[in-house]
Amino acid sequence: MNKKDFAIIEHAKRLLIEKGWTQGAYAQDIDGKDGFDDEGLAFFEKATRFCLVGALMCAGNCYSSSSTLDNIINRIQQDTDRDIFDWNDASDRKKEDVIALLDKLLKEGVV
User: Has residue 79 got a pLDDT over 90?
Assistant: First the structure.
């Protein structure tokens, strides 16, 4: 894993821990509104919860290009054997599962 990959995954993990996790939206504000479609990346500044992809996108915006994010997302989909959105939004999914997956990637050091 290169330094950018590590930084993105670590930042995404921190966002999920400090701000919160959600399903069904890239991010939500304090009222539960998903404003990403209207405001784009600027919405992330006021977001209070992120899905796994939203957290990676927000972190990736700080560090890298979309190709790096694509590599991370592809690795997650290989590890989970599911589409990343479906995995995040599964009815039995918990925030702890998402954090554990990111920890696994950081520990393995492979993206």
Answer: yes
DSSP class of residue 45?
G
Q: What is the pLDDT of residue 44?
A: 82
Given 3-state DSSP classes, what are the helix, strand and coil percentages for the chain, each rounded to the nearest 5? Answer: 65, 5, 30
pTM: predicted TM-score of the whole model, two decimal places: 0.90
Cα dihedral: 51, 54, 60, 65 (round 10) = 130
CB 52 within 8 A of CB 98: yes
Burial class (CB in 10 A: 0-12, 13-18, 19+), 33: middle
**Where do we find the tokens 């991370």?**
72
Q: How far apart are CA 23 and CA 71, in angstroms?
A: 22
Q: How many CB atoms are located within 10 Å of the residue 66 CB?
A: 11
- State how far the Cα of 52 lies from the Cα of 27, in Å rounded to an integer: 9
Beta carbons of 71 and 5 less than 8 angstroms apart? yes
